[in-house]
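dumping this here before i forget
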Amino acid sequence: MIGRIVGILIEKQPPELMIDVNGVGYEITAPMTTFYRLPVLNENVALYTHLTIRDDAHLLYGFHDKTERTLFRTLIKVNGVGPKMALAILSGIESDEFVRCVESNDIATLVRVPGVGKKTAERLIIEVRDKLKRLDIVPALAQASGSDEEGFSGIDPANERNVRSDAESALIALGYKPAEASKAINALDIASLSSEQVIRMALKGMVKSK
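structure:
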């Protein structure tokens, strides 16, 4: 099992990134909460990882900290929730907000995440609640949730067209329909924003507006 990767960030196209470790490039998929904290290209980065082995591929997922990885691993154990949906949940809802949804039986917010229907949301609440308590994950998330806007410094500049294209591609990869992604981005003033900032604002807007 590959549990941690330390190397140089050489590519990032949400939700995909590549880290060079002594000449070997590791392709990693990560939630947007991790992307918000990435350094600029060609700088050192360390991520906690989870390896999924399938018949046709070995897939590596990366996370900023152990708490985020633990939540991901908890989510994919829920019946009907695979890695793609888990990434969409972690990207669309802040970790502390997800915990709040679980504790307060907030199905309405969970079903706004692409791929999460009412039955899946109900299973998430029932199956995840006890696991979060056993893992003592709630206090850790509460401490980690204070940096809502940090992580935007040092993001690579890009022109508006590239920012829009990158943001749309990321939202579609997370499970949103092309029309939904385009509509969410069109509702924003994206001038002078990075693609990560646009994605974050669009995700928040979609979760609140549906």
